[in-house]
């Protein structure tokens, strides 16, 4: 994994990860390089002057799409006397552009040999992630008079990197160079362009005409400014909160991704560096989080997921009719079906959540036209829940992968292999059913009933959905309740035995509304009780469980996105102080990450570490972590669409001071929300 | 003997309507290249209504493959999106049309779908 000193810039699914000097020297299993379409297009990019590597004085990641590096020749011990400055400025946006500036501060002229070593291994992101090294195709490098062409060919599959510069250079197969003479105080500049191609047999690029916005720096800047200006303004006495909000908005802009099939519209990609692609679950949950701030993302996400909804049985892709996709990839392993992501459908929550998002989106925006447009897809999704997901025939959503080679074992959000266990730590057989997914199914049916009644004019169907939902709720509360400990089991095994561990998933149950009123307070107590609550957030798995590990990926770490839905759930059932506690803890943690919450951080007790410990290989920025502060703000302010208006019912911790969110878009036009922190959370803890 | 492509297009033409394409309108031309010989199929879609002609006409999207691959695509043995990423199938024009029409192709013949374990076990 990249260490602390990596610099990342990105635009959609093109991104560059480099050392702090701007150099890229990727080893086969390290995700540094220039990436696009899940393929590494540059694995080597090393600048030397007179054969010497450069030393970094400072760097700036000015915007998500650009960075600047200030360098001097020589090693740290003698650079103080440097008579030369080198500045590298780079930006991504479709292609990758680097501007080199060299300044001679000496009183005499200097002769310089400036060289960039360039190379590419064209690794598929999956090969890097899983450390698979043998490429089946052929790498080539062709030096032309005005460019260097690096390529990879396997059958008709061709990917090419073309490097050129505005200053005539000498190109060879390993890079390019300039011989310069700089007079005293003279400055020299060169602009280097690195273009990435995915070439079909006709010589055309797969991506032609698919840009969401201009690729030029100015266009990117303009686009970002417009994005920020469209979003509501947040004013707060709490400086960290304002900074976190701004960081989230910018990162969300960076993570916008334009899939090949959408003709330039964007939806949130999941996260850097591994997940710069479309995920059903991540994209939907992120859209739900950011609805009050960026509602238009939901529309495109719903449309693209609908357009790619499953239509047939495909066991390799775990596809069924009506199922919403899990993950789409564009690299070599997807192309040659060494991985199933073309697309892969192995998730059981994306399908009910698709329906949930459509309803929530309409409640905010009043866009009934989209509800009508997506009626067939919604019905197909609901049919999938009943017909194809109920593997046991007892009314629940189950999963068991049919692709036993490269498919996912756990098809819920906690998708690591050991995330679902019994209290004794052993893993259950398949099929498995996790609790939160049943909640989503309940919510999907309740919400679809409203859509059927209001927009599809089908009252019979609405009544049927409500009956089914009520029956699901009744049986769920019977089968999943761990009576002696007062919480819901994480999962059931095929014999109906409970995976009776205490997990954060019970917070999602509150969000979905499937929890019986009289049991809600017990669930809420657990969520902010000593076993799940660390002081920063709710742990994925409670301390004291056999598999608990404060840095276990889904067995003890704290996921900001998870917490944002937990907080929303607590508010839904009226546990306002508890919701504020969760919001406060996560937003406090965000300040330690400069407002950019990682995918996950350690579940250590807050008093023990004093600061949140980042999970070692966490992705950052990650869409649903970026969305978490926005949903927490919504939750604290109690923003809720209500009969065509926006209801505001703030419950803020005292330390938050005064918050105002201006120009919240929705069916009401734009309205403002004001709040002042009044809750004493310390009192609550006692 | 009638080849797979002909059977596929004639079947579409006979059906005349495909519910999966009810939101789709546009014209696709499939160019099946075999050496110097190219067979053209023109598929017109008007909100799910289909019309097929075996001719080389103007289209919003032109798809190019070898006849053998195309037969495997419409037989479910091969997947169109993977073939596109691999470069074995080319698309000029509106890619969205291909992704919509691709959904009409069947799944792999040996795919069995979800394995239900009704009866016996259960909560």
Topology of helices and strands:
The complex is a heterodimer of chains A (686) and B (123).
Chain A: E1 6-11, E2 14-19, E3 24-25, E4 33-36, E5 39-42, E6 44-49, E7 52-63, E8 66-73, E9 84-93, E10 95-104, E11 110-119, H1 125-129, E12 138-143, E13 148-154, E14 157-165, E15 170-172, E16 175-182, E17 187-199, H2 217-230, E18 233-236, H3 239-254, E19 256-257, E20 267-268, H4 280-290, H5 296-307, H6 332-335, H7 350-365, H8 368-373, H9 375-387, E21 433-434, H10 435-454, H11 459-479, E22 481-482, E23 487-488, E24 491-492, E25 498-499, H12 505-512, H13 517-527, H14 560-572, H15 576-592, H16 606-609, H17 623-637, E26 640-642, E27 645-647, E28 658-666, E29 669-676, H18 681-685
Antiparallel strand pairs in A: 1-2, 2-4, 3-6, 4-5, 6-7, 6-11, 7-8, 8-9, 9-10, 10-17, 11-16, 12-13, 13-14, 14-17, 15-16, 18-28, 19-20, 21-24, 22-23, 24-25, 26-27, 28-29
Chain B: H1 4-15, E1 25-34, E2 37-46, E3 49-53, E4 61-65, H2 67-75, H3 80-86, E5 90-93, H4 95-102
Parallel strand pairs in B: 1-4
Antiparallel strand pairs in B: 1-2, 2-3, 4-5
Domain SCP2 (chain B): 18-105
Organism (chain B): Micromonospora chalcea
Protein name (chain B): Sterol-binding protein
